[in-house]
Write a structure and sequence with these properties.
The complex is a heterodimer of chains A (110) and B (305). Chain A is mainly α and 110 residues long. Chain A is 62% helix and 0% strand. Chain A is elongated and about 75 Å long. The model of chain A has no long low-confidence stretch (mean pLDDT 87). Chain B contains 15 helices and no strands. The model of chain B has no long low-confidence stretch (mean pLDDT 87). Classes of the chains: A mainly alpha (110), B mainly alpha (305). The interface between A and B is large, with 39 and 36 residues.
């Protein structure tokens, strides 16, 4: 798609005023305003809780946002960040499990 | 070709911005404003002008001093100024009105991070601070004919119900009270405009007003007068619907409105102050983060076993 200069430039982003329009319009009933904060503060537990991985990236939140915040773009980044966080957590968990099993085997051998 | 910009959808945005929302609120405040000038005379205009000018100036100076981006253009400071002026009696000394504006903008709004970050409604908090600091001038209700009158709420809590003005005067606002709060019909027009423009949802005002009417009817405390007097209408439509300081979700807004109504009735019926709307909104503002946490949306397909 090609737009005129006025439409093509991303509008200036202003502070979230907490109007709740993003949450009211999300077809999946996610809360993009919360996801935005979770991503900004790298709060992966909040991202997990707000189920950002369900986002289908329709962009309704970004369309309605009066503060012109890039909500769907952040959701994309948040999904990637969450995936990385979860796989790291999983790897850590497996490593620990393997170590425990190794310890157990050593103990039984003795 | 080098200046082609690749971006993610959506490429077209809704026309509503923070500025257009605040402009709508200002438009909705015009009917009560006209009513206040008609009822209380030119001095009402002067008080509103001082409050708005000082609020906008305070925001500009603070942001300039802190080298923050100037957000005066989003009109939110102007809205705060008008709302604060509507919460003051007409005889307020202008320096006190200016002081209130400075408190609202700098202490309550900017020190907490500016627009969207404040946890309490600036106009309400400034009004309460002024009520405590200048209780004399803040509770002197002068009518256009320069006769001091008691407010209907003070009459009710004093048990002088036979002195109450007729309901017609209550609707038109020909009673003692703050600038913008007496003319119920003008506030209703403004509030309905905001709902029609979808700036606010019906949840908070309806829950707030219904709770007050139902509870005062049960307690036998003149529900019609309770509805039309004091800052209830102004508070329910313009203060309890402030975005930053109230819950995000509609179910949260219902809880917020009911809570405001409960506290208002508690203070009006059993408290020492005849009026409790501002305190109730401030208290519920403080509870807002918790309401938000309780009323978080459950995403579709997000239920875990």
């Amino acid at each position: 798609l090609a737009f005129s200069e006025k439409d093509a430039l991303p509008p200036k982003e202003t502070a979230c005023i907490g109007c709740g329009r993003c949450a009211a319009h999300c077809p999946l009933r996610l809360m993009p305003c919360e996801i935005f904060n979770g991503f900004k503060h790298k709060d992966y537990e909040l991202l997990e809780k707000s189920k950002v991985n369900l986002c289908m990236e329709c962009g309704c939140c970004t369309y309605v946002c009066p503060a012109k915040r890039p909500l769907v773009q952040v959701n994309k980044l948040a999904k990637a960040a969450l995936r990385q966080y979860q796989s790291e957590k999983k790897a850590q968990l497996e490593k620990r499990k393997a170590r425990e099993e190794l310890n157990k085997e050593e103990a039984t051998e003795k | 070709m080098s200046n082609l910009l690749v971006s993610v959808s959506p490429h077209i945005r809704d026309g509503a911005t923070t500025t257009t929302i605040m402009r709508d609120v200002l438009i909705a405040l015009i009917p009560p404003f006209i009513a206040s000038v008609v009822i209380f005379g030119v001095r009402a205009l002067l008080v509103v002008l001082v409050c708005v000018a000082v609020a906008v100036l305070a925001e500009f100076v603070f942001e300039k001093a802190c080298k923050k981006p100037i957000t005066v253009g989003d009109l939110s400071a102007a809205v705060t100024g008008v709302l604060l002026a509507f919460n003051l009696p007409v005889g307020i000394p202008l320096w006190q009105a200016a002081f209130g504006s400075i408190v609202a903008i700098i202490v309550v709004k900017q020190l907490f991070g500016g627009i969207g970050q404040n946890f309490a409604n600036p106009a309400i908090t400034a009004r309460i601070i002024m009520l405590l600091a200048f209780s004399g001038t803040m509770t002197t209700w002068v009518f256009p004919d320069a006769v001091s009158t008691a407010t209907p709420l003070a009459l009710i809590s004093g048990g002088l119900t036979e002195n109450l003005p007729p309901i017609k005067d209550m609707i038109l606002g020909l009673t003692g009270g703050c600038l913008g709060e007496t003319c119920s019909i003008a506030i209703l027009i403004g509030g309905l405009y905001l709902i029609a423009r979808r700036v606010i949802t019906w949840h908070t005002p309806v829950a707030f007003l219904a709770t007050v009417v139902i509870l005062t009817a049960i307690l036998g405390k003149q529900p019609v007068y309770q509805l039309l007097s004091g800052g209830l209408m102004l508070g329910a439509f313009f203060m309890a619907t402030d975005y930053a300081t109230t819950p995000i979700t509609n179910s949260g807004r219902l809880i917020f409105g009911i809570g405001c109504g409960l506290i208002t009735v508690l203070i009006r019926v059993w408290g020492n102050y005849p009026e409790g709307v501002s305190f109730s909104i401030l208290l519920m503002n403080i509870l807002t983060p918790y309401i938000d946490r309780w009323t978080r949306h459950k995403p579709f397909g997000g239920v875990q076993a």
